[in-house]
Automatic annotation (TrEMBL):
<dbReference type="InterPro" id="IPR014710">
    <property type="entry name" value="RmlC-like_jellyroll"/>
</dbReference>
<feature type="compositionally biased region" description="Pro residues">
    <location>
        <begin position="286"/>
        <end position="298"/>
    </location>
</feature>
<protein>
    <submittedName>
        <fullName>Pirin family protein</fullName>
    </submittedName>
</protein>
<dbReference type="InterPro" id="IPR003829">
    <property type="entry name" value="Pirin_N_dom"/>
</dbReference>
<dbReference type="InterPro" id="IPR008778">
    <property type="entry name" value="Pirin_C_dom"/>
</dbReference>
<feature type="domain" description="Pirin C-terminal">
    <location>
        <begin position="175"/>
        <end position="272"/>
    </location>
</feature>
<dbReference type="Pfam" id="PF02678">
    <property type="entry name" value="Pirin"/>
</dbReference>
<dbReference type="InterPro" id="IPR012093">
    <property type="entry name" value="Pirin"/>
</dbReference>
<comment type="similarity">
    <text>Belongs to the pirin family.</text>
</comment>
<dbReference type="Pfam" id="PF05726">
    <property type="entry name" value="Pirin_C"/>
</dbReference>
<dbReference type="InterPro" id="IPR011051">
    <property type="entry name" value="RmlC_Cupin_sf"/>
</dbReference>
<feature type="region of interest" description="Disordered">
    <location>
        <begin position="275"/>
        <end position="298"/>
    </location>
</feature>
<feature type="domain" description="Pirin N-terminal">
    <location>
        <begin position="17"/>
        <end position="122"/>
    </location>
</feature>
Amino acid sequence: MIELMIPSRRKDLGGFEVGRVLPWTKRRMVGPFIFFDHMGPVDFPANVSRKTDVRPHPHIGLSTITYLYDGEIVHRDSVGFHQTIRPGEVNWMTAGSGISHSERFDTIREHGGPLHGIQAWVALPESEEETAPSFVHFDAADLPSHSEQGLSVKVIAGSAYGLTSPVQTHSPLFYAHVELAAGRTTEVCGGYSERAIYVAKGSVRINGEQYETGQMAVLSPGAMPAITAIEPAIVMLLGGEALGPRHIWWNFVSSSKERIEQAKSDWRAGRIKLPVGDDQEFIPLPEDPPPPKPEPMS
């Protein structure tokens, strides 16, 4: 019923660490989800260094979903959107043919405070990879939800548990935020060929195995295991239909290696516009890793 477990790996973003789950060497994607980072929980002091901010950087061929449990992030992008991201809201940015954006901690910098959330990337179908860039925001109250004793479900995108999000997606997928009181059980939703359960807080039991914060259980096709909270828990349910292989390099996703090379060239040459209102700095294109050294001859 459980195909494999993916552990999160700590990654330093320069100002704080995240738990990187996808992509992984043994599992690159779950449905169209190709990237999954768990941010925090972390408490920032007032006047936290601007090194913590994520400076302007580019994307192609994907949609990003920033979803917070706690804290605030200020988003600016090259389409012209300026949006403060708060807990429980949906902030869905489609890069398509190319976009740049920044993620800054302006509010937290002023007062200090916590940050906890998930950033996920969804690959676009080949026919939509060059779609026009866009950004949509939905307040928490706009998202369909269901609550009963010891259980709450919010559908961020797609359809799950009989609820359908207003977020327009480019391929069949689902993404849901589920909270369980200790001892409460719920069944994972079906209807998609690829699905996973990520433990964002607490610990749960799935198919007799215990899963802790920072672990993702990838389900076998058709599996419908129960999720039981050992302690109060937050789990994220995600998946959808596979799109086929994708290449990923830095912040670029594409079905074509040549398109990624073009995006690298475009960013290096300044052909991708910087965010409106945040165009005084940017993250330079990383260098390609050096080729492996040849083995010495015996």
